[in-house]
Amino acid sequence: MDEMFNLLNNVFDNLHEGVCICDEKGIVKYWNRSSEKLYNVPAEKIMNKHLGEFFPKALNLKVLNTGKRIDNVFHEPVEGKLVILSAVPIYNSKGRIIASVSTDRDITDAMNLTKQLEYEKKKVEFLEKAYKNEIASKYNFSSIIGKNKKIIDAIAIAQKVAHTSTSVLITGKSGTGKEVFAKSIHEASGRTGNFVAINCSAIPGNLLESELFGYVEGAFTGAIKKGKIGKFEFANGGTLFLDEIGDMPVEMQVKMLRVLQDGVIYRLGSEKAINTDARIIAATNKDLKKLILEDKFREDLFYRLAVVQIQLPPLKDRKEDVKDLANLFFEQVSAQEGIKITNIDDKVYKILTNYKWDGNIRELKNVVQRMVVLSNNGKINTESIPEYIIESVSPEEDLGEDEFDLERIVENVEKRTIKEVMKMVKGNKQHAAKVLNIKRSTLYYKLGKYNI
């Protein structure tokens, strides 16, 4: 009999659940090791004591009073300790309750984790909604500023194609607003999924596949334990923007072509097909047709991507838009930095309009930001403009009173051209005269005339 009791005692002590046995008066007669760990109450402290002294809300006591069993209920015996508890009454042969037995499973950590996950889920949903609202407010066709005919034509094409599932290729130099156009197309498309952007030149070729398609656990060394969702899946029902598509490795282009043809992707390390409904918008600042001739870009992929092609002009060809764009950026940066701009000198606009803007709209925005944060008393004047811009623009050309003075216009063009050529040939006058197709003596005369 003693051996049987010791066996049962060992069994109870090695159970994961806490076990408590009380007699008919609620006096604790058994308290196993798991109960000790669960409630941090040693057996010697609680044994032969009334359970209510330690746990006033103990369900064991309720079972003794009602004679009814309780199965798998959520319970908080003490503040901050959450358990799943079952308790049953024990009857003798005469039908009288002589004891109650309870088992308690600790779920405190699991519940805290669930609450944390729920909180994080709500936070993600809030941020996702806020992000979509920001996209909607900042990136739509009405927010694209432009009087230039090429920009107006580009907007018209983008608006027409937005509601379709057609792939779009946006070309143009860096900083011309390719991603702004892509986001505006997405916003006007009516698609409910995410706008997901990936820069093909910023990710090493050996990692680009896993970024686009995702991977399963153990797909490669260093892979996240539970795998990772790819950009295609994240953009499902939305738009996948492939920026700098011209830098995508050729071997990756083959896999991209297959996805565009079949609408199916495979995570790395998996043979399970995943259907994708991501609309593709690609962008590049490179000449893809030239890359095709050099065998650096697949011709079949080009025609898959360029079903509709939108060419964005450089800012130097949009002089009529510079002032409006500058004003937009002055307004945005002022609000962002909390700096009120009360006055902008008209000469500032003239200089900005005649600058060549190699960095296009992005450079203009950065210059405006610099002028705002370094402004004094809310005023922007020619002294606010970076020196490299002032030096590259002829003051006479931009600050002259008569914009129709043909002689002055010719002189300004001549002066600017000579300065650019001299810079290009690093001051070699003989070479400069040859490039300009004038005599060397003529060049010396003009260098002196314009004080170059």
TrEMBL record:
Domain Sigma-54 factor interaction: 144-373
BP-aspect Gene Ontology terms: regulation of DNA-templated transcription
GO MF annotations in UniProt: ATP binding; sequence-specific DNA binding
Phylogenetic placement of the source organism: Bacteria, Bacillati, Bacillota, Clostridia, Eubacteriales
Database matches in Pfam families: AAA_lid_14 (PF25601), HTH_8 (PF02954), PAS_4 (PF08448), Sigma54_activat (PF00158)
Cited PROSITE patterns: PAC (PS50113), PAS (PS50112), SIGMA54_INTERACT_2 (PS00676), SIGMA54_INTERACT_4 (PS50045)
PANTHER family hit by this protein: C4-DICARBOXYLATE TRANSPORT TRANSCRIPTIONAL REGULATORY PROTEIN DCTD, TRANSCRIPTIONAL REGULATORY PROTEIN
CDD domains given in the database record: AAA, PAS
Name recorded for this polypeptide: PAS modulated sigma54 specific transcriptional regulator, Fis family
All residue ranges annotated as the PAS domain in the record: 4-55
Keywords, alphabetical: ATP-binding, Nucleotide-binding, Transcription, Transcription regulation
Domain PAC: 68-119
